[in-house]
Structures are given as structure tokens and as C-alpha cells.
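U., I forgot to send this yesterday:
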Amino acid sequence: MTHHATGHLAIIVTSSTPLWYITRATGVVALVLLTTGMGLGLLIATRFEDRHWPRFITIGLHRNMSLLALAFTAAHVLTTITDSFVPIDLQDAFIPFISPYRPFWLGLGAIAFDLLIALTVTSLLRARLGHRSWRLVHWTAYLCWPVAVLHGLGTGTDTRTRWVLVVTLLCVAAIVCLTGWRLAAGWPAHPRVRLAGVIALVAVLVAGGAWLVTGPLRPGWSQHSGLPALTHVTRAAP
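Result:
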């Protein structure tokens, strides 16, 4: 069924392909795994260990979670470009902001994917890299988590779906709590740095919450988030 509205061609699809569901599922799983890896990285940074939980377990899990996150992200990318429902090509997954479909939000996904690849590769080649070079790339690559969250909220058609929103908010809450613990436990000789970090964390939370409420959670966000010109596509639930 098709109809014209406000100069745009609206296409209503009454069934969903398995690739569509796989794309959505792998995206959510990748975010959970990326959050787990990020959280374990923060635990390593705070030098957390316990008699029943040695530090080498945290390090090993951190590495494995990063590899799993990369695998599910790759599956997410593959199913997205294979599904012909939206015009997304292979280069769109690596080169930011060139896709005709939601270029900004999909571009954030490309940046997160590139950073995750850099994080994984440098972790695997750590023994061959200088510690300073590895540390610089490693910490820079941690930006992939907030960028991935913004990508999911901004471009996802399921942002307003309750369970997806709950999973995303739980991921954010976990990282916020661990970041707060990191700020409280680290840099004892630099209280101003810790205070600045707390202020920045609160500011980001307030700004992010305001954007979420006034943007992705508002009806009609998908129509205004960067669909290709002359085409507005809606996939209805089966």
C-alpha cells in the first residue's frame, strides 16, 4: 500500500524480513556487550580485585567482551547492508556521514564501528606496540561506547519500544555508576580533576536526557531524522 503525503512518497510495509529482526537484535546485543566491556575496563582502571575475583579474570573478560562486541557489530552491519529495505551500502558502515539514509546518525554508527575495530586490533597487538601508543589508541577507542549509544537512540526505529529503551537506559546507568566510582576512587591527589569530572558527567546526563525527551522519544522522530529525500518509509509490525 502506498500513498502521497506532503510531497513525500510514503511506503507502508506490512511484513518484516528475518534480516530486519536480526539487525535489530544484533544491534541491541552489541550494545550490551560493548557496555559490559566498557564496564570491565573501568573496573580495571580502578584496579578492582577481590579474593574471589582476581584481576586477571576482569582483564580476560574485558578482552573477550570486546571481541564479542565486534563480532555482533559486524553481524549488525552485515545484515543492515544485506537487507534492501533501506539504501545502506558497505562503505556507509566505515565512512561516516555519506549515507543518504539518516546520514548523521548512521555516521555515528560508522565512527563507533571504526573505533571498536581500532580498540580490538590494538588490544590484540598490544605486545608489539609501545605502551604509550597502545594507551592513547585504547582510551580514544573508548569513545565508541557513547557514540554507539547516540547512534542507537538517534537512528533506531525501536527507540520508543519499551524493552529496547529500558535496555539502553540500563546500559547508560551501569556506565554512569562505574564512571562515578572511577571518579571517586581515582586521582586522590587531584580533587579538582575529580570535581570537574563529576560536573561534566552530570551535565552530559542532563543534556542527554533533555535531547532524548525532546527528540527520539517524540512522535515523528523517524520522519525527521534524515530519511532520503522524496522517500518516507515505515515498516509496520506484522
